[in-house]
Amino acid sequence: MRILQLHSDFIEYRPIKKEVAIAEEAEKKPTKLNDLVVLFTCVEQGDDATVAKRAIDEVKASLKTLKSNKILIYPYAHLSTNLAKPADALRVLKAMEKHAEDINLETYRSPFGWNKQFTISIKGHPLAEQSKVIVPAKKAEEERKVRKWRTPKPEYLLLKLDGETVDPKEYRFQRDEEDIETLVNKEVFKKEAPGGEPRIISVLKKFGFEWEPSSDSGHMRYGPKAALMVDLAGDYAWQSVNELGIPSFFIKGTNLFNLNVPAIKEHADLFGERLYTIRVANDEFVLKYAACFQQFAMLKDWMVSYKQIPFGMFEIADSYRLEQSGETLLGFRLRRFYMPDYHVFCKDLEQAKDMTIKVHRKIHEKVRELGSHYVSLYNLTKSFFEKNRNFMRELVRVDRRPALLRFVPEGKYYWVINVEHHITDELKRSREIATVQIDIGNAKRFEIKYINEKKEESFPPILHTAVLGGIERYIYTVFDSALKKEIPTVPLWLSPTQVRIVPISDKFIDAAIKVADEIQAQCIRVDIDDRPITMQRKIREAEMEWISYVLVIGQKEIDSGILAVRDRERKEIRKINLQQLIKEIKEKNSGKPFRPLTFPQKLSSRPQF
């Protein structure tokens, strides 16, 4: 096989005419792909699926240098006179495509068997143009054994609440342990529940969470209701970390960092292949994938004493991760998202362990507020586990269920333990939401120091966490929890509209406005359905929006001062006066953040969104 590999700004091609009988079906219209590596590929006699896999593996190795993860396999017979038969060539090209997708490359393939017109722009750097020749392997089985040796199979154990461990294959799961069994099936046995689009996708869209079609794959847009929920969740994330009881600092910064800075480059290399990179003049930059870069770059310039430790830094980071386009999921797996990233800087490992237990408890507390729960995957080394069994026992007691241990190689990661918190969604699939980890490597890498009791410089262990999880994933969890109830409800403090007032006719709109003003003055979000439609439709649409309280106002309510309130949570129509209703709502919202409406109060003033 011969490949001409071109790192390209773009390629645009259009099928013109079929050249062989087995040519694939294709539309005669232009296709344009931007910022990718084009593989002009010529399949020769003797090439097979093994050659296809080796070719893609070689390409992937070079992609890391090019900071790209996107390829186009372009059949190109003009690189050799020793061509494979068309049917064999197509089979090999499809094998390349499949293997590329299996190893998480964003993969495209132009149609086989066509004469095509194309325009291409090649990036102007020394590695932009490369050629590869891949010959058939003599012993594919030997290569398979080598690959297996290079990537040892992970070892797993289940940690029970009493601190004992057991092989997952031998454990008998109890009825209330279905979620940890789901996680074990996914991680250990590579078995996951069948796919399909969950109901949560349509709910997210109803609240204004959508894909942005004019952006890159995996980028969302947020309508007025969604934007309000995102901001409220961000406020709550900041509130939640302050509940840990240590001094914390809210910071903001850039999302673009220079890969020529050694510490940035080293940290980015640890993250792997999911980097968004941008070239400006002669420099290459990475878009941050969490708040680490900004917080660490800032903290290294601070003078810190042991008397000020522990303390935390918080940022709602505009984050970018180059997830595979075929794996993105609205509200959950995104290329661009908001990460309420919190780092705790500790005196030593013992203090870091104490803080990890506090954070772990807080993470569970926040998901239990939603009527849901997490199960945990602990990634750690065997040596850390053996030396810290009491610490591990405290963690799993917070879980209230067995936890899955995944042992990683010694010295491979910058952390000593990384705890993943998973929900099980309505389709019985395990979904990671929140994390906490103890980092013992990055303080030295970024030159983050504090002055200890002996007046010496020390490197602090650093906790990385997002107590709620990513903002979008937290909201995903909110809706997932809601859909498991008989009548779905969003927590009142997070609901875009908390109260809707429905006047029974136009002549009661002024009265509705007066009531709305009184409610709004108490930091409660209220709107008015003053549209010229039927009462039945107004009530039905309020129910479809999951609005907690719907007030109907007519002459009877004005004269008596008693409101007819549709209470979604109680599933009944209640008779209650306005002050009693306000008191009830304020008690439910107590301790939670508030923001005003992000859209007009009157529904008649709103376009349909």
Report on the architecture of this protein.
By secondary structure, the chain is an alpha+beta fold. 32% of the residues lie in helices and 27% in strands. It has 17 helices and 28 strands. The chain has three domains: 2-147, D-tyrosyl-tRNA(Tyr) deacylase (D-tyrosyl-trna(Tyr) Deacylase, Chain: A, 3-Layer(bba) Sandwich), CATH 3.50.80; 155-250 and 289-483, Bira Bifunctional Protein, Domain 2 (BirA Bifunctional Protein, domain 2, 2-Layer Sandwich); 492-605, Rossmann fold (3-Layer(aba) Sandwich).
CATH architecture tag of the largest domain: 2-Layer Sandwich
CATH-defined topology of the largest domain: BirA Bifunctional Protein, domain 2
Number of helical elements: 17
Task: Count all strands and give the number.
Answer: 28
**CATH class category of the largest domain:** Alpha Beta
Give me the secondary-structure category.
alpha+beta
Distance between the termini: 53 Å
Radius of gyration: 28 Å
Shape category: globular
Could you name the CATH homologous superfamily of the largest domain?
Answer: Bira Bifunctional Protein, Domain 2
Strand order of the largest sheet: 8-7-18-17-19-20-23-16-15-11
Q: Report the sheet-strand fraction.
A: 25-35%
Q: What is the share of helical residues?
A: 25-40%
Biggest β-sheet: count, sense, barrel? 10 strands, mixed
Provide the domain count: 3
Low-confidence parts: 139-149
Quote the average pLDDT: 93
Write the layout of secondary structure elements.
Elements: E1 2-18, E2 31-42, H1 49-66, E3 70-75, H2 86-102, E4 106-109, E5 114-122, E6 129-133, H3 140-150, E7 155-159, E8 165-166, H4 178-187, H5 200-206, E9 209-211, E10 220-222, H6 224-242, E11 248-250, E12 256-258, H7 262-271, E13 277-280, E14 283-287, H8 292-299, E15 311-320, E16 336-345, H9 349-368, E17 375-380, H10 382-387, H11 389-399, E18 403-407, E19 415-424, E20 430-439, H12 442-445, E21 450-451, E22 457-458, E23 462-466, H13 471-483, E24 499-503, H14 509-520, E25 526-528, H15 535-544, E26 549-553, H16 555-560, E27 562-567, E28 572-577, H17 578-589
Parallel strand pairs: 2-3, 3-4, 11-15, 17-18, 24-25, 24-26
Antiparallel strand pairs: 1-2, 1-5, 1-6, 7-8, 7-18, 9-10, 12-14, 13-14, 15-16, 16-23, 17-19, 19-20, 20-23, 21-22, 26-27, 27-28
Helix pairs in contact: 1-2, 6-13, 9-11
